[in-house]
Amino acid sequence: MTQALLIVDFQRDFTPPDGALAVPGGDAIAPRLNELAADARYDIVIATRDWHPPDHGSFRAHGGPWPEHCVRDTEGAQLHPALDRARIDAVIDKGQRRDTEGYSAFENPELGQRLRENGVTAVTVVGLATDYCVLNTARDALREGLAVTVDTSATRAVDAGPGDGERALSELRGLGAIVADLTRG
Ligand code: VGL
Ligand code: ZN
């Protein structure tokens, strides 16, 4: 089995203290992400970035639900500085056009290509946020026929509605993903 680690959107704008769309506790997963990225069980480690144009359709100013976040080439769109870049084999961007949502990293065909090239059959999805990009990326990974694990020790939810994160995890379980805290036996 060839396994990939997918670190979803661990970017400044999604993390406290000053991210534009900070996910509660999002910064706290950094050490665990680095531990996973260094784990020899992963043959390839891919980080994704939300990478929007300044007029992205998901921004409130353009009729969307979110504050402006992860505008391409800005500080806020950079990978979080605590992430060990030396462990990242590839960075894949998504949501680059104003009309593409970018919740799933599979919207960028480079991700599927990269996984196929490497013969990946299983992915562990971690990062931010459980109820948006982690959910949509993991769902598409299942659709691609990959075995999917979500390590809950390394993901956090926006929880705009109470329980959104838990609902996302239940949905993924129902679709066949393994959802577990891998730090516990
Ligand atoms: C995300 C909201 C808007 C995410 C991206 O990475 O989960 N959430 N854009
Ligand atoms: Zn976004």
Helix content estimate = 10-25%
Q: Let me know the CATH homologous superfamily.
A: Isochorismatase-like
* Count of domain modules: 1
| Mean pLDDT across all amino acids | 97
Uncertain segments: none
Which word captures the global form? globular
Q: State the CATH topology.
A: Rossmann fold
Give me the side-by-side strand order of the main sheet: 3-2-1-4-5-6
**What class do helices, strands and sheet pairing give?**
alpha/beta
What kind of sheet is the major sheet?
A: 6 strands, parallel
Bound molecules: pyrazine-2-carboxylic acid, zinc ion
Instruction: Write the CATH architecture name.
Output: 3-Layer(aba) Sandwich
User: Radius of gyration over alpha carbons?
Assistant: 15 Å
The separation of the N and C termini measures: 21 Å
Q: How many β strands by DSSP?
A: 6
List the helices and strands in order: EHEEHEHEHE
Could you please describe the fold and organization of this structure?
It is a single chain. The chain has 185 residues and is α/β, with parallel strands linked by helices. It has a single domain, classed as Rossmann fold (3-Layer(aba) Sandwich). Helices cover 23% and strands 21% of the residues. The chain contains four helices and six strands, in the order βαββαβαβαβ. It has a six-stranded parallel beta sheet, sandwiched between helices. The longest helix has 14 residues. Pyrazine-2-carboxylic acid binds next to helix 3.
